[in-house]
Amino acid sequence: MTRQILIGMHLGNGYGNLPGAWRAPAVDPTSYTSFDAKVRHAQAAERGKLQFLFLPDGPTHVGDIANEPPNFNLDVMVTLAAIARETSHIGLVATGSTTFNEPFNLARQFKALDVLSHGRTGWNAVTSSGEDVAANYGQHIPSSPERYGRAHETVQLVQALWGSWGETAWVHDKATGRFADPEQVAPISLGGEYVASRGPLYIPPSEQGQPVVFHAGGSPNAHEFAGRWANAVIGAAFTIDDARAQRAAFREAAKRAGRNPDEIKFFAGLMTTITADKREGLDRRITLSGRTFPQRAAYLGRMLGLYLDPARLDEPLSAAQLSEARPSPGDPRSVHALKIARQGWTVRDILAHGVIDYHPVIVGPAAEAADHMQEWFEADAVDGFWVSPDIYDGGVDAFVDGVVPILQDRGLFHREYDGATLRDHLGAPAQYGVDPRITR
Ligand SMILES: Cc1cc2nc3c(=O)[nH]c(=O)nc-3n(C[C@H](O)[C@H](O)[C@H](O)COP(=O)(O)O)c2cc1C
């Protein structure tokens, strides 16, 4: 079968990726606590046949709570449990820290969600960063080798626990009175330098056996970790070359672990403001994020090697400034920022293009997003994207009704779900318990 783009949808705080999304006209400002809102956004993504929802998790809030909502869900597992009951196909991927959770708790919660969702669950196993997160657990952030040392042990333990209830152990035969085959439900008694568990975990397999492992991280340690354990990587890249290099690094690591590199899919982030014309999109972004622009103008200046006066946001860069500008080698977004500046936009509009955002930003007609996705995909830079809409109410629909049909017409995106599990959607191989190739 020809390779096609895979798409996940970011679901964060209930509003969208713009800091002022909670104040948008059609948005209920209490969506942060509304599970109805989250279910509605998930159903919109499922209508577009997207492969999965991705829920990041800190868990902390370091933003400006006086003006902006927290970044994350109230609780990713509770949110996905609610969504699982109101959707039928879309994959449900939640982030769970290997540093600040016990393997037994992770194994139990994720497998229970996998059973509840009939085999649609994914675990984004991350090592976490930031002292503010660690402080919530009364700890400091361990060093990278320690975090990844614990992460390797944790995933191995979690998968061993998932496999500790044998695939055919559950007999539940009322006539004979036999509930389960005890030979197939056995302790694992595994322990390492950081974590240990006896088991077994009393949870039978789901329709996909056990959850699919994802990872998000960028260091060489992350490559080795994902190369061994993950079937998908939630990535961040600003250029095709960067994405291609990251994807290749994860694929090489998978090969070193004795796996087929096609077993690990690389997803780049993409932020969207899909509108009929660019001006409408820029204006929306100015209304909902312009409060930060004076401060961002100073940063944009540093990206371009210029001084930009925060009081003169409504002027384009002068000819002298444009000829003096040099993209900063320290920020991969600088080349793109200069390209936009050269198109003659005002500083306010340059910032409204999202040139200082966490991921590439598309502002404007759906075809622009489709073109971006096609270009990156055909350059072998990605297997797919995780898409983060500016405002979930309306923004998920704009993607599903605008971008998805274009990709489908170009033969780049499927029209129907072929299977019912997340493993099916990602083309991930069957696995139950630990992967014997990794733990031999
Ligand atoms: C695209 C992307 C998404 C991430 N999402 C999360 C997240 O939701 N929660 C979290 O704790 N860390 C998240 N991380 C951070 C990683 O867990 C990791 O702590 C960080 O990248 C530092 O690890 P490294 O040394 O491997 O780069 C994310 C990282 C990337 C690149």
Automatic annotation (TrEMBL):
Residues 28-378 form the Luciferase-like domain. The keyword Transferase does not apply. One of its GO terms (molecular function) is monooxygenase activity. SUPFAM superfamilies: Bacterial luciferase-like. Its EC number is 1.14.-.-. It is an enzyme of class 1 (oxidoreductase). Keywords: Flavoprotein, FMN, Monooxygenase, Oxidoreductase. InterPro entries: Diverse_substr_monoxygenases (IPR051260), Luciferase-like_dom (IPR011251), Luciferase-like_sf (IPR036661), NTA_MOA (IPR016215). Belongs to the NtaA/SnaA/DszA monooxygenase family. PANTHER family: ALKANESULFONATE MONOOXYGENASE-RELATED (PTHR30011), C2H2 FINGER DOMAIN TRANSCRIPTION FACTOR (EUROFUNG)-RELATED (PTHR30011:SF16). This is NtaA/DmoA family FMN-dependent monooxygenase. It comes from Arthrobacter ramosus.
